[in-house]
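YM 10:42: UDP-glucuronate decarboxylase sequence, as discussed on the call
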Amino acid sequence: MRILVTGGAGLIGSHLVDKLMEKEKSEVIVADNYFTGSKDNLKKWIGHPRFELIRHDIIRPLFVEVDQIYHLACPASPIFYKYNSVKTIKTNVMGTLNMLGLAKRLRARILFTSTSEVYGDSLEHPQKETYWGNVNPIGVRSCYDEGKRMAETLMFDYHRQYGIEIRIARIFNTYGPRMNIDDGRVVSNFIAQAIRNEPLTVQLPGTQTRSFCYVLDLVDGLTQLMEGTDTGPINLGNPGEFTMNELAKAVQELINPEVQISEVENTPDDPRQRKPDITKAKERLGVPRT
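YM 10:58: structure's back
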């Protein structure tokens, strides 16, 4: 089995590579442009005879021979995806078109990592896969939100028109080792501020919620989805829900009880509630890691 992982140098991608490389008969190819990923995340595999690392931006076609494609490439932190919004939407649309073209040529199965952001500032709680979302199509986050929604559309169009085997995972907030400490996501942001003895900046009103999944549990879900028969979309995440005030207090207690918590203005279109309904994942992907 030859497997391509786009975005394999990132948080989720590098842990996925670890899991795939543990299969003795798997050969893994990683394509990454290092816009947000790091080669250091893959250093344990560099030089391994079953591993290949390609510096490549998927907005350009990629010609490799593989059996499966895990398509993860895209900046996931608001700081990064808003920094170059045009590149973000190109990655989601042109990059996905290129990966689908590769899958079509090779008749390879392709898994696309979508996001809970497709639900936008949700009017349904918790969010089920059947919910169509409440997304601002011209907002500062839409390069990511709408880009992922368009990529899902492309996945299903290729599936219906060309019979491509597709899998779609809608990933909720994920944390774990190899997070970029300065990427602006709330878990790494609070931890970095506590370590640096800086105030933990909670965006107003502080009652907005998120649900956080450990990266290894998420990777288990991705591989089970790839090996299963369901096209998705399937929510992957932890239904445990925290307000940002609760998260800040937890980090304060664990890392630096002396640090202050301060309130700052929120960013536009920030979702007020985020909690996955994972009924479908439990029914179709088996029992999660304990």
